[in-house]
Amino acid sequence: MKNRARFSILDKTLLTGSGLLSLLLSRLGRHPTRLQTKGKNSGDVELDMNKLLGRAMIKPTQRINDYLTNKTILITGAGGSIGSELVKQVASFTPKCVVLLGHGENSIFNIKQTLDQKYPQIKFHYVIADIQDKPHLDYIFQQYKPEIVFHAAAHKHVPLMEMNIGAAVRNNIFGTDNLVKIAAKYHVERFVFISTDKAVYPVNTMGLTKRIGELLVQTMAERSKTKFSVVRFGNVLESRGSVIPIFKQQIASGGPVTVTHPDMVRYFMTIPEAVLLVLEAGALSKGGEVFVLDMGKPVKIVDLAKNLIEQSGYRLDKDIKMAFTGIRPGEKLNEVLFYETEKIKKTDHPHVVIAIPNKNKSLNIDEALESIRACLLDSPEQLHDMLISIVEKAGQ
After folding, report:
1. What residues does the Polysaccharide biosynthesis protein CapD-like domain cover (predicted)?
2. Model confidence over 235-259: pLDDT tens digits?
């Protein structure tokens, strides 16, 4: 890598105490822009999330304690980035027990090691299950009788779902339909569905399936005493498959850092902020709402990449190159958080708002599901067109 010698690389294992570190830095007469640790995590840096986000991180309130304490809580997608953080945060509120439902045994096994050691006083149940398997879900709800459900399981990677539309439909639509119906059947108190800003004016398969998931949840809120609600995420920093881990890997490999388009912007939130929004939604919900976090101004992906290169101790172009690869199938330059027809209502949390949907009675969601089911074996193009027609009929 060019000009590597200009950077001072210190091994933190050789330093004992902040005083010695300060002394070394003053003697060197420069700032070590990269602190290395020996071992497999060599090159890791602690990121300044406030700088990456362009705003201060949002803090939690105390209200969530009231509805989680001594409750049986079920979390789908519990081995994923959001699901696993949800489990850890929920555990801190002394629930009666937590049911971790996940499809991937390895991710559930990994989080089990952490939870059993860190929260020995909490009762955890580890369940390997597919949300598309309705009889199995019914058995799980019958056995554990959850009072609170957080639905984080989803197929979320946009380019992959463009290539696997049937899998996205089965998991994100029919899996969600299974869960909301079973939750209502067993009189769950609160159900929070994790959606995405890609569900707003969706152009890709993932966004279309999540939008229909929103409609399923809102419909069930009208039919059930369970308090069903939706949260819409922006892009979650450092979640699996998001840009930060990809950029970090590219930087560690010497570049280039690949950005799809110089004008692409996204709303970003950290994993703790995402979980905060989910927990606050559960506390605030009266049924049928869509909760959104005020994430400030959207961030240019190219600026995020530049910032990360700088925080990693390198200089753009001199040490790490950047390359533009072009927009991928299903991507938009800009994401928005609300439909124009949705009314925005403040909550008593300063950074959480409610999007009140325009109730459109022209869509029969049950008929829509049957239409989708009938198209599952058709061509991907026909299935995609069916999803678009349903979302358009629901009204945007």
Report:
1. 73-355
2. 777 666 678 888 888 999 999 999 9
pTM recorded for the entire structure: 0.80
Count the residues in the chain.
396
pLDDT for 36: 38
Q: Which helix (H) or strand (E) holds 70?
A: none
Q: What is the rounded distance in angstroms from the CA atom of residue 225 to the CA atom of residue 236?
A: 31
Q: Where are the domains of the chain?
A: 64-236+268-295+341-394
Task: Give the pair of three-digit tokens for residue 315.
Answer: 């200089």
E strand spans, the chain: 9-11, 34-36, 72-76, 97-102, 123-128, 148-151, 190-196, 227-233, 235-237, 257-259, 265-266, 268-270, 290-293, 299-300, 322-324, 343-346, 352-356
Which CATH number is correct for 64-236+268-295+341-394, 3.30.43.10, 3.40.50.720, 3.40.50.2300, 3.60.60.10? 3.40.50.720
**In which residue are the tokens 């809580």 written?**
73
Spot the catalytic one: 198, 227, 248, 300: 198
How many CB atoms neighbour CB 227 within 10 A? 21
* pLDDT tens-digit map of 300-358: 889 888 888 988 889 998 899 999 999 887 788 888 888 888 899 999 888 889 998 87
d(CA 271, CA 341): 29
Query: Tokens for 82?
Result: 């959001």
Pairing, β 352-356 against β 290-293: antiparallel
Tens-place pLDDT, residues 216-225: 999 999 999 9
pLDDT digit string (tens) for 33-48?
343 333 333 345 556 5
CA pair distance 149, 219, nearest whole angstrom: 17
Contact 331, 263 (CB under 8 A): no
Neighbouring residues of 293: CB distance < 8 A, sequence distance ≥ 6: 58, 231, 233, 234, 269, 273, 274, 276, 277, 351, 352
Cis omega (within 30 of 0) for bond into 256: yes
